[in-house]
Design goal:
The complex is a heterodimer of chains A (817) and B (163). Chain A has 19 helices and 29 strands. Chain A is of the alpha+beta class and 817 residues long. In chain A, helix 9 packs parallel to helix 17. Chain B folds into 2 domains: 75 residues, Beta-grasp domain (Ubiquitin-like (UB roll)), CATH 3.10.20; 70 residues, DNA polymerase, domain 1 (Orthogonal Bundle). Chain B has a 5-stranded mixed β-sheet, with helices on one face. Chain B has 6 helices and 6 strands. Classes of the chains: A alpha+beta (817), B alpha+beta (163). Chains A and B meet through helix 1, helix 11, helix 16 and strand 29 of A and helix 2, helix 3, helix 4, helix 5 and strand 6 of B. The complex binds FE2/S2 (inorganic) cluster (FES) (2 copies). One FE2/S2 (inorganic) cluster binds next to loops of chain B. One FE2/S2 (inorganic) cluster (FES) binds next to loops of chain B.
Chain lengths: 817, 163
Amino acid sequence: MLEHMEPSELKLVGRKALRVEGVGKVTGEAVYVSDMALPGMLHAQVKKSPHARARIIRIDTSKAEALYGVRAVIVGKELNYKLGLYVVDKDILAKDEVRHYGEAVAGVAADTIEIAKAAVDLIEVEYEVLPAVLNHMDALKADAPLVHPNLGKYDYVPVFSPQAGTNIPNLSKLRKGDVEKGFAESEWIVEREYTNPSVQHVPMETHVAIVEWKTGDEVNIWSSAQSPFTVRNLFCYTFKLPLNKVRVVVPNVGGGFGGKAGIHLEPLLACLSRKAGGKPVKMRATREEEFCLLPCRSALTYRIKTGVGAAGKILAQSLTLYWDAGAYADYAVNVTRASSYSAAGPYDVPNVKLDAYTIYTNKPYGTAYRGFGHVEFFWGLERHMELIAQVIGMDPLEFRMLNLLKPGSITITGERISDHSGDPAKCLEAAAKAINYGKLTPQEKAREERTGRKIGKGLATLHKAPAMPSFTATAAVVKMNTDGTVIVNIALTEIGQGSATAMAQIAAERLRFPLDRVKVTIEKDTDKEPYDWQTVASKGIILSGNATIMACDDLLKQAYETAAQVLRAQAVDLDHDAQGIFVKHRRDRVISFPQLSVGYAFPDGNAIGGPLIGVGRYIAQGLSNLDKETGQGLPALDWTFGAHGVIAEVDCETGEYKVLKVASAFDVGKVINPDIVRGQAIGGMIQGLGTAICEGYIYDEKGHLLNPSFTDNKIPTAQDLPEEIETIAVETAQLDGPFGARGVGEHPMISVAPALGNAIQKATGAELLHMPIRFEDVWRAVNAKEPIDNWITKTPTGSCRSDPATRHSSPDSAALP
Amino acid sequence: MRVKLSVNGSVYEREVEEHFTLLRFLREELGFTGAKEGCGAGECGACTVFLDGKTVNSCMVLAVEADGSEVETIEGQALNGSLSDIQAAFDRHHAVQCGYCTGGMVLSVKELLKRIPKPTVPQIKEGIEGNFCRCTGYQQIIEAVLDVSGQAESAGKGELKHA
Ligand code: FES
Ligand code: FES
């Protein structure tokens, strides 16, 4: 779909434009599901497990049912349904066993929230507490309790490989070349293990839905979901309903970040509504529930062993990723799969052996989160590159440049990189230049002297392709109104990322209309919008952008056909501008778009044509499934490459540090709207700093989540901004991207943490292996104390780090069943 | 209990349960849904409104405490269909993404500019630190505040660069 247009010919693409839904948001008029109320609406609350793992002996709901105003009470035993995105492993409410702290065991719908809460308090649950498996490395031990003893019996999507009789719902493998030979030829072998805990997405609007299950199985769902068609799909799979019975409506969404990509509260509310006679039932998660009832991002332990040749070329990598899924497989199995073809980074590596495990534990479960695993594994990978450079005595920038993918390189899955794949080196150079990498400026030297703190500069690269099925598809419908304005219907939801505005710019550019004649729908409705797979994976700009261009072309083709008859000209002799269609060599022979919009009527009353409705369908092309044993295949629609440069100032006495500057560069192919690209870049970067600096789940030794609130789980505020931020776009056109564009929604969050870690290491020599990088971690690392993490136990031992006995051995000898 | 207060200049009188927060009263009883709940615990600022000329987290105020008060919400900022200067600056600078924090943020900025007509960047950061935004990374919000306070030259530096 690359349009070979000079930037000067483009009127709207590449230029600033206000957000199409901006006014509604600044006035408070924009409606979110949390704002909605329907006549007769009931309010739901859930009873949650106080234990990480326990058998449910007895649930007594009689007192709750007797409370005035309670219209429905449900427990798991009544619900004979299974839910799951890829591995169908979840009950709507826990049945015999609870698998994580905060899991729902009963639901209530009542006239008011107060009554529903009181009813939940009246529900009595007797548990037999069972030993929980909390550390995902422990879950691999032969004697570990099984979180899902029935794993072998669950339905699953065949691209995954559940290991029956273990805690492993998926194992993805990749083999390229001969890794042993690569290590044998290596001059240096560097091996480390990197870790990070679970974190929460923290959309400012928590998950919320309203569901009504009407007579005749007509189900209406209003949800803060990112992907209305996925909610409909999974809902109908679980309840065995035809898709045309279930309608999912998504208005404005108060942030998603992947946490709202799947199906969440909808099935429970549907069951409550059905039991309450079809009344609409609403539930909005509290902030605490957002942390423990709803999913989080998986923790990761990443073990990397790299062989490097005498000249500094990477010859072999043995990569083992242990993903902590928590209690349910949800997206974690697909994060694992995505990591299996991406976790070597944007580097040319001839020999690779990769094993990526998804591991069940008794903790809140992991799901998609901006970056889809890349934030987590790039922490390890880009710290590792830094450590290798140090070991072999090469500058880290030079070492990265030497090993980056370039045209002609073969990725680890066997894809050949071309001139059009994007330019990781240019991104890295731009980031390095923006921070004056490799030296301190006179001002920085003076600052060091003045403050007594050390300034360090670090870099990190990144890449990501959309993690999606090879056949991912979408569609767009463009309808002309009688005044020549148009409506663009697409199901890509607007969750803040700015897609609606970008699509409006693309459509207006293609139609040659001013922007204000194009409206892109904000509220999505599965009964009205054409199909879209999901709003995830940074795939919106390419898929929906291309579909929108094709729909515009289709509309114009119809308009030209009618105009050709009216103007008595051949369609090839016609051209158009914003006003209408004209004969190229007779500009006065023109017919306006309003005249053509719903069909043309001749003066005698005869009519031709009909309403102008363009349809565009786009499907990812040329992708293939990955071989289950070797991981070889073509998984990537496109790669967006990027890099961050960070300047940090560290107090070596205390470990406290400050981020002075972050410079980020991304090869976006083509900027559609510079303000939106910059907004994504900065927003993602700050979210990445949150992950880098402070965010993470902390559990006690029994698996109780200790910090499910903003008091104990800080997210960045305006005070946490770096002193200086620079955002740079590289534009290597993507041949099949709309106007050459590729996605950049997730990428800014990736690799912020390792760039910061590398800067801190440069300033202090601290070898940091665990993210987030708390001040005390820096202090400990500076003082060469053993790095600790207390993300599970209340005593500072044990962790998401592996058993010390296996920590320094080869990944091949990990204690696996 | 009976509560009578004015919101954006209009008077409302309702019977309300004593545990009802001002936030729920505004949203659920009066339909001013521009104030949002992000935490319900006084930490995120999404529920910010003016109460007798001062910003408060309305999730931490009981409706009955606001009896006899003047409340100003985000819905009261645009007059006769045109955005307030702060709203227009937010729109112009893309200081809005999902929009969930925006109402509270705009009101906190209004309060800041009442106190300090030309705030420095550190003063702006301090002024909005009680309002969480998970989407924007705050930078474009700061630029909008610089612009609307007549410091557009400092705001203008915030551009996407090309390599
Ligand atoms: S909802 Fe009031 S401060 Fe968060
Ligand atoms: S714009 Fe989404 S939270 Fe601020």
